[in-house]
């Protein structure tokens, strides 16, 4: 591991200033991703700024009727928070579908947004990777790409963003609050992560030195009809091959509002608002769901080992929407959501 | 009065449990000897080529760095291949770490950086620049299908397949029902929880003690003493505890070489620990292609059986395992052809992994048997019983004991097999398809020469020792039970020591032979001790045992007493006190009774029943229930034995549904080399598991009648699950593991 210095920040301004005054500094939350990246020599910051003493661990109601999640609240505290469980159960479910209890106890909300891809090649410095070393090439294209993207890919990179939490946040249209050298600003969740294009080394639209301070959840939580469905190679403690955050607002059997976000399929949580809009006014039937699934996956393509994801994603969307409509736990759901 | 010292067979808690949970148990990387230096291994990024240069200079300038070892400066060591051969080295030329500038496989250890602290060593290793010249590599066995060859040299324990019998081709063509299919399973890495490590303590007189992670301290000792020219006295090897082995510790791994080499060169104690990624840099269960042809007669008996296997080996050694031989003995069939070939690839030599060969072969054979039963319209259990082998047709010998039929019956009864609707896709639970499948297996019962020593002290405590290992299997516990029972002492008064070359020699811990081999030695040494005790007891004033012969007495409840008149007894502790001796000692060994054993085929057997639930839309499979019925001779400890079989079932679930090391052939490199992406079951994947031991008496295998249970439990599990998936879905998956994409 590279030698590095370490400091604790106790105020947001100090953290931002500290970051700006170092060349290769990194913020560190729970460290569950950053430490691995450092051990594997993928990232080599020379200065770490510990965030856990920042006063950003609270989860509280905001004046507009929404909920504000502190960036330093842990994934576990967020998932089990009574307000989150009651008003945003989709988010709870998504967080609890991720990682393991130990990891969720350490992982912070800010860190979860910032976690990097799990692409095998990205983690192995013996292989070329544009995300790790711009211009070196993408080993996953033409390589082993079972866990890779099928939507929004580029010739430079086909990595996915691995988060579960972020898929629910995308569906719920959260807003990311950040603080940087030029002050505070907010970023719509849909604009936070980016597609790889020809700059896959840039994961998101955070500007240099900016710190995530919190997440705002809008008042609407879809707490009546929702489902987070995660498909993976074992029942728990594995990243999603495909995941779906589905949220519906129903009037009788008619869809009034719908949100569908996909995980495991793209460099960012994948949404298509046209498809969601088209669902409005439709009956909540398998037929409707299938149409939506087909539309959502239009333009999807596999790269060999991940070809199956196109079909899997379609079926997962249909199932998630069905589960969101019916809101009852059958034996399948018990298996698929057995994580906590 | 009950004979409370009869411990054999009882479900006994692990005697090493408290040490393990309190952290008192020390593993190889935990011996904090004074003035320790740390070595970090640098691994090759390429699969084949030459090392042009190791740029050590900048790294050596880093404060705290002591040395950079590579082929450029490795000391002069033993020259001949034979010095690098360990007890289970396959034929060929063993890999020599840091030997020359050749790169033979990806992640090959290229250099060792040693520093005062681990952190500095790791940092220095991470920036050590090495220049390579890459050459074309071949790592894909699919491209070597036609280049297989029959191994000429093999390794200890390997048997070439028996010659064909009957008319396997002709009879297959004539058969009433026939199947022929290919079965594939990828590579797997052992991945025990504890990473490989060696702490070599350097003593002022130039001798060393290596705290190593190994399944055989004697094997490791002879390896380093031959390579480094040390006498056995100068090279002590210790492995008190092991965080899992599964076969990965059978051969000395390269961190042992590195650590000893650096310690001798620097005249300082050195520890080398591998990373999780480097745990994928040595032996593995080989990628194997298998082809099975079966045919049945109208009455459901097997008309012909053919089983061929082709698996990978390295360019430098011919790794062999018994993949197909089992197929010639598990079922009665007069027309059999078995074939076995290797293909050379630019990989490290594969390595025995729990039930090597059999675990692989049984997948193909037992899925094929299921296909055959289905084709012939027979129930899979009934089909197997119709083809029950009463003798071992490979060896043309009777079985020393075989209660496989009872495994089928008892397992089926426990599982509720009679309620199975034979039609695929016929059973459901809500929107999930339910499938029931079964399979079985066979494994060797072997005994090897072992020695043991016993010391009984005046305070009534017994210490028994033998240089075997406990790789987590429960060796400490069962040996303590055996010793306590044979000398009639309370288990608390008995200590068993192992894993140290200062102790009497024992074989490698493998092949499920430890209980039989070391167990018999422990029994023998306790009987030796018993004889000595009796002699002392007879010297006591007014001893009621004066005229007794050894066979007339028994050792029970802390006493020596007459079998026929148990009231005539002396207390063992009193005997010692009366003798005036501080301690009594005995040392002896146990060898198999070859005369008896040569006339028999000695094997353990099992039958496995599995239930899966499949969500057909989404391709997910969950194993909801497994019954594993095992006939493995006498069970020494129901608790640890059950744990062994439970662990086997979990591994079987793993092989069936998720476990595989994936290679990117472009780089000739395993890519999922970490615990996040190399998937093994988590708790949520493990549901209702039931273990059933079928009682089996065997007087041939060894005096204790034990066959060992370390491996047998794994057999049949993966096939039973794959068969259950077929029963649930009607889809036959012949390339394991059965992952989501294969069922969509
Ligand atoms: C074995 C394993 C399995 C996992 N499985 C899953 C899974 O199934 N699903 C899933 O969703 N996740 C999974 N995770 C990932 C886990 O959720 C993330 O590692 C975690 O959320 C990261 O949070 P952290 O606080 O530990 O981040 P850190 O490791 O501390 O930081 C990660 C990155 O974020 C930056 N950062 C941290 N906080 C801030 C901030 N406030 N502002 C700006 N930048 C910041 C850091 O500089 C760093 O670059 C898994 C992780 C592991 C190791
Ligand atoms: S997919 Fe992206 S992260 Fe993976 S190798 Fe290609 S460039 Fe690197």
TrEMBL record, chain A:
The keyword Flavoprotein applies. Residues 1-222 form the FAD-binding PCMH-type domain. It comes from the Bacteria. InterPro entries: CO_DH_flav_C, CO_DH_flav_C_dom_sf, Diverse_Substr_Oxidored, FAD-bd_PCMH, FAD-bd_PCMH-like_sf, FAD-bd_PCMH_sub1, FAD-bd_PCMH_sub2, Mopterin_DH_FAD-bd. Pfam families: CO_deh_flav_C, FAD_binding_5. The keyword Transmembrane does not apply. One of its GO terms (molecular function) is FAD binding. Signal peptide: none annotated. Keywords: FAD, Flavoprotein. This is Xanthine dehydrogenase family protein subunit M.
UniProtKB/TrEMBL annotation, chain B:
Residues 151-170 are annotated as: Disordered. Residues 22-136 form the Aldehyde oxidase/xanthine dehydrogenase a/b hammerhead domain. GO terms for molecular function: iron ion binding; oxidoreductase activity. SMART domains: Ald_Xan_dh_C (SM01008). It comes from the Bacteria. InterPro entries: Ald_Oxase/Xan_DH_a/b, Ald_Oxase/Xan_DH_a/b_sf, Ald_Oxase/xanthine_DH-like, AldOxase/xan_DH_MoCoBD1, AldOxase/xan_DH_MoCoBD2, AldOxase/xan_DH_Mopterin-bd_sf. Signal peptide: none annotated. It holds the Pfam family MoCoBD_1. PANTHER family: DEHYDROGENASE, XANTHINE DEHYDROGENASE. This is Xanthine dehydrogenase family protein molybdopterin-binding subunit.
């Amino acid at each position: 591991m590279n030698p590095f210095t370490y400091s604790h920040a106790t105020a947001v301004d100090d953290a931002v200033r500290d970051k700006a005054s170092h060349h290769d500094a990194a913020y560190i939350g729970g460290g569950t991703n950053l430490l691995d990246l450092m051990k594997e020599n993928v990232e080599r910051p020379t200065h770490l700024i510990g965030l856990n003493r920042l006063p950003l661990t609270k989860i509280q109601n905001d004046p507009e009727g929404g909920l504000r999640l502190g960036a330093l609240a842990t994934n576990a505290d967020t998932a089990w928070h009574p307000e989150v469980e009651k008003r945003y159960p989709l988010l709870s479910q998504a967080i609890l579908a991720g990682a393991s209890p130990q990891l969720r106890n350490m992982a912070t909300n800010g860190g979860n947004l910032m976690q990097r891809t799990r692409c095998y090649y990205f983690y192995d410095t013996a292989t070329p990777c544009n995300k790790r070393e711009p211009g070196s090439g993408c080993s996953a294209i033409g390589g082993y790409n079972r866990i890779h993207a099928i939507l929004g890919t580029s010739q430079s990179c086909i990595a996915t963003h691995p988060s579960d939490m972020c898929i629910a946040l995308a569906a719920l249209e959260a807003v990311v609050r950040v603080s940087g050298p030029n002050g505070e600003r907010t970023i719509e969740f849909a604009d936070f992560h980016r597609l790889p294009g020809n700059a896959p080394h840039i994961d998101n639209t955070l500007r240099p030195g900016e710190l995530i301070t919190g997440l705002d959840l809008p008042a609407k939580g879809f707490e009546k009809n929702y489902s987070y469905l995660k498909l993976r190679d074992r029942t728990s403690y594995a990243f999603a091959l495909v995941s779906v955050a589905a949220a519906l607002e129903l009037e009788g059997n008619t869809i009034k509002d719908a949100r569908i976000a996909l995980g495991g399929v793209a460099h960012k949580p994948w949404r298509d608002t046209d498809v969601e809009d088209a669902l409005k006014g439709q009956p909540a039937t398998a037929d409707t769901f299938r149409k939506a699934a087909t539309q959502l996956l239009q333009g999807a393509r596999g790269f060999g080992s991940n070809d199956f994801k196109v079909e899997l994603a379609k079926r997962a969307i249909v199932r998630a929407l069905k589960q969101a409509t019916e809101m009852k736990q059958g034996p399948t759901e018990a298996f698929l959501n057995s994580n906590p | 009065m009950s004979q409370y010292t009869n411990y054999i067979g009882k479900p006994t808690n692990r005697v090493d449990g408290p040490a393990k949970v309190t952290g008192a148990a020390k593993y190889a990387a935990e011996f904090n000897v004074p003035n320790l230096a740390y070595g970090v291994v640098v691994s090759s990024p390429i699969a084949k080529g030459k090392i042009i240069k190791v740029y050590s200079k900048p790294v050596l300038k880093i404060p705290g760095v002591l040395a950079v070892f590579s082929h450029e400066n490795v000391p002069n060591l033993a020259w001949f291949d034979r010095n690098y051969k360990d007890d289970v080295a396959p034929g060929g030329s063993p890999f020599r770490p840091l030997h020359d500038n050749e790169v033979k496989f990806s992640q090959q250890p290229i250099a060792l950086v040693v520093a005062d602290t681990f952190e500095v060593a790791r940092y220095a290793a991470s920036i050590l620049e090495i220049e390579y010249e890459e050459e074309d590599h071949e790592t894909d066995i699919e491209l070597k299908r036609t280049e297989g060859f029959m191994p000429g040299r093999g390794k200890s324990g390997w048997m070439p397949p028996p010659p064909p019998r009957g008319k396997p081709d002709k009879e297959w063509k004539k058969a009433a029902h026939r199947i022929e299919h290919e079965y594939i399973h990828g590579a797997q890495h052992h991945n025990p929880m504890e990473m490989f490590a060696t702490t070599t303590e350097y003593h002022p007189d130039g001798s060393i003690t290596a705290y190593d992670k190994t399944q055989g301290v004697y094997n490791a000792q002879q390896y380093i003493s031959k390579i480094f020219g040390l006498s056995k006295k100068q090279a002590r090897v210790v492995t008190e505890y092991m965080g899992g082995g599964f076969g990965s510790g059978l051969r000395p791994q390269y961190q042992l070489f590195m650590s000893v080499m650096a310690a001798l060169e620097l005249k300082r104690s050195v520890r080398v620990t591998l990373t999780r990624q480097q745990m994928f840099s040595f032996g593995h269960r080989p990628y194997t292609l298998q082809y099975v042809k079966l045919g049945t007669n109208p009455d459901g008996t097997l008309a012909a059986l053919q089983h061929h296997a082709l698996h990978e080996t390295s360019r430098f050694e011919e790794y062999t395992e018994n993949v197909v031989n089992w197929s010639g003995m598990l079922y009665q069939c007069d027309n059999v052809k078995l074939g076995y070939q290797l293909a050379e690839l630019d990989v490290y030599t594969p390595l025995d992994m729990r039930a090597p060969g059999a675990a692989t072969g049984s997948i193909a054979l037992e899925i094929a048997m299921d296909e055959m039963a289905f084709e012939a319209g027979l129930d899979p259990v009934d089909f197997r019983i119709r083809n029950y082998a009463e003798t071992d047709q490979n060896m043309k010998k009777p079985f020393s004991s075989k209660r496989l039929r009872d495994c089928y019956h008892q397992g089926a009864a426990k599982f509720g097999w009679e309620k199975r609707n034979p039609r695929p896709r016929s059973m459901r639970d809500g929107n999930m398809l339910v499938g029931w499948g079964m399979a079985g297996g066979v494994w060797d019962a072997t005994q090897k020469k072992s020695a043991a020593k016993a010391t009984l002290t005046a305070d009534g405590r017994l210490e028994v020792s033998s240089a075997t290992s406990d790789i987590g299997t429960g060796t400490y516990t069962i040996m303590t039970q055996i010793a306590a029972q044979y000398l009639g002492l309370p288990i608390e008064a008995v200590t068993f020591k192992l894993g140290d070359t200062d102790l009497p020699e024992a074989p490698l811990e493998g092949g499920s032979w430890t209980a039989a081999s070391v167990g018999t030695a422990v029994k023998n040494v306790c009987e030796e001790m018993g004889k000595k005790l009796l002699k002392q007891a007879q010297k006591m004033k007014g001893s009621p045992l004066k005229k007794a012969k050894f066979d007339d007495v028994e050792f029970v409840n802390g006493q020596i007493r007459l079998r026929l008149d148990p009231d005539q007894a002396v207390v063992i502790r009193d005997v010692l006190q009366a003798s005036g001796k501080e301690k009594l000692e005995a040392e002896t060994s146990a060898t198999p009774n070859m005369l008896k054993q040569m006339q028999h085929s000695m094997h353990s057997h099992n039958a496995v029943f599995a239930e899966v639930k499949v969500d057909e839309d989404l391709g997910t499979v969950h194993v909801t229930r497994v019954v594993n019925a095992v006939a493995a001779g006498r069970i020494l400890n129901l608790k640890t034995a059950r744990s062994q079989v439970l662990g086997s079932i979990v591994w079987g679930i793993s092989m069936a549904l998720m476990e595989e090391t994936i290679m990117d052939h472009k780089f000739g490199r395993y890519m999922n080399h970490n615990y996040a992406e190399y998937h093994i079951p988590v708790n949520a994947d493990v549901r209702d598991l039931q273990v059933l031991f079928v009682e089996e008496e065997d007087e041939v295998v060894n005096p204790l009648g034990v066959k060992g249970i370390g491996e047998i439990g794994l057999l049949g599990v993966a096939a039973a699950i794959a068969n259950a998936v077929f029963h649930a879905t009607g889809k036959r998956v012949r390339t394991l593991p059965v992952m989501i994409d294969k069922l969509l």
